[in-house]
Amino acid sequence: MSNRKFKTEVADLLHLIIHSLYSNKEIFLRELISNASDAIDKLRYLSLTDEKLKGYSFSPRIDISFTEDGERKLIIKDNGIGMNETDLNDNLGTIASSGTRKFLASLSDDQKKDSNLIGQFGVGFYSAFMVAKKITVISRKAGEEEAWKWESDGESSYSIESAERQEQGSTLILTLNEEGEQYANRWELENLIKKYSDNIAYPIYLEYDQVHYDNEKKDENGNALKTTEHKVEQINSASALWKRPKSSIKDEEYREFYKNSFYDSEDPLFYIHTQAEGTNEYTTLFYIPSKAPFDMYYADYRPGVKLYVKRVYITDDDKDLLPTYLRFVRGIIDSEDLPLNVSREILQENRVMVSIRNASVKKLLGEFRKISENNPELYSKFIAEYNRPLKEGLYSDYANRETLLDLVRYKSSTEDGYVSLKEYKSRMKEDQKAIYYITGGKEEVLRTSPLVAAYREKGYEVLIMGDDIDDIVVASIGEYDKTPLKAINKAGALSDLKSDEDKAKEEAKKPVAEKIRKALGDRVKDVVISSRLTDTPAAVILSDDDPSVQMQRLMKQMGGEMPEVKPMLEINPDSPVIARIEKSDDEDFIAALSAVILDQALIQEGVMPSDPASFAAALTKLLSE
Ligand code: ADP
């Protein structure tokens, strides 16, 4: 026998589970049954595909029994793939999923108490220690002779030794603690199995002793005669929900199925069930979680879609079943036409799979669009969680760009909440040539930009794109419904608002622009005259082909060499501050004032003056004059 210590992360997880999920401890049974079902899935799959296990025949089942007398025990037995010594050590001594590990590390102390958060990832096997003071696992791997016994009290260590088991599979024996005693009970177990595991595809049998009292017959003390009958009863309905006719499935059943299959304690926002017939026969059942999955922005996120072929589980670990930007979708794809032994490499090029995938994306995006049109309240909840991945889709999924353009939402200078491009277009002024937007900083900073104020004054709406991926994405959009998109903080938008009168004024004001340009030297690319600024003396803009400030920051973070991008200064010819420069021929004064105007414009964009000392000196000089 060998004794081993849990990896520290397991000890942490155990502690966390016991303290945060306590009020919901009954979920341990769901977790163990789900593991048993996974183990059967694996063996069924291998018996169809694996060289060594091909033709391996068994009748999948899960058996649950308990003892009421003396020490109370709960026993969960499956005839799935089983575990050998190495598996037991790897699977029950460490946390296998790196996503789970990272998630745990990222939680604050407060979050650790939030059972909804904890419940989001599969807490799994270890949750059984909430109700058990000791767990014994006896397991034999399919195709191997030797069986093994793993045992632990869930404190800090576990033991593994050689054991006996007739058939492949695992038996879990939970020696219940005080809090767990209630589960050694027929009604309690029946209830929980129905509640959480009704859709498990394999039969779950419950063994119990049924007691009868026969009043007709008396025992020696004159009491009704007591007889006990040992019963084995199937509790779950063991049918794949998604294969049942849609009309026969209740909303409640859809939601329970989601919560039990995808580890979410909350109801999904909505679901989409498709049973396609014809040349390509398949079923999909997709769910949109009400909260974005915790690992949505991790590179090693867990994919949310499980693939089945004719109800046989194939994989839940294929990131290509849907495009990456739809990684928040949970659900099932079940194909009638794929070969059972489809390998992962072939899957991506398989004609059937490609067509299911394309149809699924169309279906999902189409439903999103319907909801956006018919149920704004639901859609705004959806957007609050998933606007960003949809934006990723805008630049990665060219085929569905039109639909995606209708789905994404932006903040606006004139409206509350989020607006769509379609809404924006419907509000455009008659003479308006473009959809105006601003990027390059946080929403709050962008909102206070003098350029936004200038457009508002003239009655133009501006989309406030404060999301850090907006910069990259919006540049690739180009136009929406034949209307170009223009960044108001780039030079290209300047001419749009110019009248003939403005052009004449621009001619007249060239000398002052030149004065400022000379004073600022190589700090700016150019100084141009504005026809849009109203209250403020100046604003910084970029020339059309320069990356925005945000983009520059991003490229620096990614370690790229960034040549310094110089801003253009747009000056307001009607500002009294600019007029002072116009009238002056004191070069020191012009230099100081020009520098302050530029720095002030930068500050308004959220950029610190590059040389605070000379900014302060110039300001002091001006104030003392
Ligand atoms: P998860 O199921 O989320 O991977 P668990 O902690 O529940 O996490 O289980 C860890 C691993 O132990 C599983 O991934 C599986 O490989 C293995 N395992 C657990 N229960 C069984 C079982 N009944 N039969 C075979 N393997 C099992």
Q: What attributes does this structure have?
A:
binds adenosine-5'-diphosphate; 23 strands; Ribosomal Protein S5, domain 2; 6-stranded mixed β-sheet; alpha+beta; 9-stranded mixed β-sheet; Heat Shock Protein 90; 625 residues; Four Helix Bundle (Hemerythrin (Met), subunit A); 38% helix; 21% strand
Describe this structure in words.
The chain has 625 residues and is an alpha+beta fold. It has 3 domains: 2-234, Heat Shock Protein 90; 241-357, Ribosomal Protein S5, domain 2 (2-Layer Sandwich), CATH 3.30.230.80; 409-624, Up-down Bundle (Four Helix Bundle (Hemerythrin (Met), subunit A)), CATH 1.20.120. The protein contains 22 helices and 23 strands. Strands 1-6-5-4-7-3-2-8-9 form a 9-stranded mixed sheet, covered by helices on one side. Strands 16-15-18-17-20-19 form a 6-stranded mixed sheet. α2 packs across α7 (186-197) and α10 (351-374) crosses α11 (376-396). The model has no long low-confidence stretch (mean pLDDT 89). Bound molecules: adenosine-5'-diphosphate.
Mean of the pLDDT scores? 89
Radius of gyration: 33 Å
Any guess at the CATH architecture of the largest domain? 2-Layer Sandwich
Weakly predicted, low-confidence segments: none
Number of helices: 22
Helix fraction bin: 25-40%
Structural class: alpha+beta
| Major sheet attributes | 9 strands, mixed
Strand order of the largest sheet: 1-6-5-4-7-3-2-8-9
Q: What hetero molecules are bound to the protein chains?
A: adenosine-5'-diphosphate
Q: CATH class of the largest domain, please?
A: Alpha Beta
Strand content: 15-25%
Overall morphology = elongated
CATH homology superfamily name of the largest domain: Histidine kinase-like ATPase, C-terminal domain
Give the termini distance in whole angstroms. 89 Å
Supply the number of structural domains. 3
